[in-house]
Write a structure and sequence with these properties.
Layout lengths: L5 H10 L3 H8 L3 H9 L6 H20 L2 H8 L11 H6 L3 H10 L17
Length: about 120
C-alpha cells in the first residue's frame, strides 16, 4: 500500500470533495480513483501527472479560501475563466487557466486555520 496520494485525499476531504468529485476532475471513474487513493493500483504516468496537478490546484485554493468557498468556486462559472466552471476546465486538462486565476486571487486571512489563543492567568 502506498501513501503517495494521501495529500490529495487530505486536501480534497478538507474542501469537501468526494471521490466522485475527484473522479470528475480527473475524467476517471470513482472506482479507479478510490483504488489510486487506497494504493490498490498505481496510476499510469499520465494519470499520476493529473493527480499531481489536481493537488496543486486544491492546495492553492485551500491556501486562499475556506473549504466551502473553494468547493463553491470549483463548481460555479467564473467570468475570469470565460464563464466556464473551473471543474470543467480541470476535466479538460486546462490546469494553466485555473492556476492563473488562483494565483491572481488575493491571499485571504483563513480564520478557520488560526489556532485559538491560550489564556494566561
Amino acid at each position: 500500500m502506498t501513501t503517495e496520494i494521501t495529500p490529495l485525499e487530505r486536501v480534497a476531504s478538507a474542501i469537501g470533495l468526494s471521490c466522485f468529485d475527484i473522479a470528475q476532475m480527473l475524467d476517471a471513474t470513482p472506482g479507479i480513483v478510490e483504488a489510486w487513493l487506497s494504493g490498490q493500483i498505481t496510476p499510469s504516468p499520465p494519470s499520476r501527472e493529473k493527480l499531481d496537478e489536481l493537488l496543486l490546484v486544491l492546495e492553492g485554493l485551500f491556501a486562499k479560501m475556506t473549504p466551502r468557498a473553494a468547493h463553491t468556486w470549483l463548481t460555479t462559472p467564473s467570468n475570469a475563466l470565460d464563464y466556464y466552471e473551473p471543474l470543467d476546465l480541470l476535466r479538460r486538462g486546462d490546469l494553466y487557466s485555473v492556476m492563473r486565476v488562483i494565483d491572481a486571487m488575493p491571499r485571504a486571512i483563513r480564520l478557520d486555520r488560526l489556532q485559538p489563543a491560550v489564556a494566561h492567568d
